[in-house]
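INTERNAL AUDIT FORM
Audit reference: QA-55
Scope: verify that the stored structure record matches its stored sequence.
Auditor: D.O.
Record contents follow.
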Amino acid sequence: MSIHPAWLPPCAFLAGRRVLVDSDHPLADTVREEVIRAGGILTPHADLTFTAGPAGDAFTLTGDRVAADGPRGMIYGLFELARGGAAGRHEPSFERRMIDHWDNVDVHPVMGQVERGYSGGSIFWKDGVLRGDLGRVRDYARLLAAAGINAVTINNVNVHAAEARLLTDRRDEVVTLAREFRHFGIVTHLSINFAAPVILGDLPTADPLDPHVRQWWATIANSLCEDISDFGGFLVKADSEGQPGPFTYGRSHAEGANMLAAALAPHGGVVHWRAFVYNHRQDWRDRTTDRARAAYDHFAPLDGLFADNVIVQVKHGPIDFQTREPLSPVLTAMPSTRLAVELQVTQEYTGQQKHVCYLAPMWKEVLDSVHGDLTAVSNVGDDRYWTGHPLAQANLYAAGRLAWNPDPTAVLDEWMTLTFPEAPSELRTVLHRIMDRSWLTYEKYTAPLGIGFMVRPGHHYGPDVDGYEYTPWGTYHFADRDGVGVDRTSATGTAFAAQYPHSRYESTATCPDELLLFFHHVPYTHVLHSGSTVIQHIYDTHFDGVTEVESMLAAWQEASSLVDPDLHARVASRLDEQLRSATEWRDQMNTYFYRKSGIPDTHGRRIH
């Protein structure tokens, strides 16, 4: 079965060109391979020259030269030329740009091969062992490098028994994968279990202040970095959703992270320590508990206490990758701590790669406000189209490219040009009609005004308005006969809004419409800044969302002669499902809120 090539066919612009790669770094050999693959000619008398300084990912393009700050910059400059990039200086706004895989070695009985994976199985492991043919991993590394990614974590943040052994007797698999990624300048990281000294060793404790535990991790780090000279470091999910952590021993997250950081420091490695820590055994009757508060409450007091090589990794919103959330307050509350913002490319709450939902416009709003590292949860699998839905490839591409080019529309144009290089301009028009506003369309027919989690528990696909409302995982809409929304104000609610200095979220007068119900419980007759009431906005957006999906499907049908028939059929089948699901969302949401409010639609449309 052939694999759809995604956004980078061979660098055809090199065909017949004379090229000099003036460097003896191993990554220069990668550039030379690309030149030969594309039909270029390696020669000292060149009309295109690649040079590299000692360090850095930035590069400068002139008419006949790629002058890179460091070896990786030569690769990024090559792919920028493939995009037809403009002359001048090109540099990323985030130093480390990492893709996190939630892949499992074995098929987990609940989470499957890839946790929150919607594109088939792992591209790394099959039937519990590393795949024998890693050609596709090499292709994947090339795709990531073309998007400007320079780091990857290869396994799930929820580290199960088999994955824990990647530190020890299965380390050769990590070594092998690191070799493939290194070829394109991508550094390999590993998710680890905080309790590994107990699980893998013979220690009775994983207390981060215990000298035997500290020595165990130092020994592991020494041998690991001896086997993988450019090993990037550890990713840790601790004290969250059942994963072990320093709280077990009465220690802080800073103490837990710093113990691992000390082990890696001699080798230049870093610890990405996730801030996704909250009580998932809440009592829904307790109106003072608020999942949105948790990360700030846990981590803001620790600012300045983390080691220099600890990076606190923060989800971009305070809840869990919902369709619309405010920026996590943690991302602006820890000026003395290295931070990474975490995006979710895999569309757990945004259609699970069955729905078109181009997320770059949402991410831009986040990335414009933060600095540090950029991390993104992968959406690839062993599906022939890499991401299940062929158009979902654009999200993976954007996760890297937004660090270099912050214009979501320009990034989408790049992806289209590279993915469909032979297609007529009509295809670009169709794809823009489908993708440009697809995130806003998804928001309309699912959960507008900042309401989240109205999804079916467990797998999170499809509508279930009260699915999580009375569970220990949290309460998210508080709808009753009088109104809807979560009161997060300081005056009468959970005081989450106060985590934002000079917060515009405290008052309904200044809170933006798109986040109103995230911060306020209001009557159904509350008038939005748009002039519509809350209840009418709910009705209107759900009807409009379905209409917009119908238009997407019609536009794609017009493109039947413009793309490969198999690809057209795959996208058409996904759009059919998107329309079915959008209709289901519309009918359930409108009916639910009509029955709660008793207020009819002013346009008299059918509500069941």
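Auditor finding: record pair retrieved intact. The longest helix spans residues 565-597.
Action required: none
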